[in-house]
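Review the following:
>
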Amino acid sequence: MHLDLLDILACPQCREALEPVDVAASDVIEEGALRCRGCGSRYPVVRGIPRFVPAENYASSFGFQWNLFPRTQLDSSSGLPITKQRFFASTGWTEEELKGKRVLDVGCGSGRFAEVALATGARVVAFDYSSSVDACRDNFGANEQLDLLQADLYSLPFRDGVFEYVYCLGMLQNTPDPERAFQSVLAPLQPGGKIAVDVYPKNWLNVFWPKYWLRPLTRRMRHDRLLRLIQRLMPMLLAISRTLGRVPRIGRKLRFLVPVANYEGIYPLNEEQLHQWAVLDTFDMLSPAHDHPQSAATMRGWGVAAGLRNGEVLKPGHMVLRGEKAGD
């Protein structure tokens, strides 16, 4: 972590300032700890990442998957602008406006969206509840514009109003209470700052999706066992899904009857990439401890309750809520 990150950090327990201890004299802290000047709480810094949460938590499945598939969904790895297109379609922001701004990446995983934000020239602070921050460090730790933390969404270690942009893409529905999570990430956003979050859409068709029939079992399985099962079944699952997907007019709906992430006809991935993305995202949908899709009406309610200016809900794929924080 860069030493100037301390300017925007606060103890998640008592909100007082933090100071480095047991660290080498440098502008970059690789190992040591941060100590609260108020309550005295200590938080280790490991591999340059302040750790504000225990190693094992409800997001452990994400740490498992992103450390196994750290580069699969990076645009720099796939050679396709899939993540870049999703990022800008969801946020409505431009590369020019992000340049030089302080941006918070909530739930960074291995850094697929951080890669896009960093490419704009933004100063990015990214955090995750899981050990996926280590995969993000391996991918982008050399970038001087990035700082990483392992932190709790419901107990953020930031001062209020220190970020100009906040985004949370692909993880809000995987928290115990998505509405409370949304409210939490508003606090570090400055008045007039912009926010964009997305969730899985909630609709009546979800009752026909085997994902939700299987999750009561699969989310309790050991992660390595579930992954091996998915890998073993993937050739058959993909073949069935592809066959159903080619049925005229209703194929795109029919293939949801198979619990597999099939991106054929959606992304221009090659055969190897289609298989790897299918394994990764099938694990991603079956393993999390929490999965709480939300309706458009619910998300509009979040925006109204938060007093967002220019708030809007749209569905460029996931269900997106975006707007500006009220204030000068």
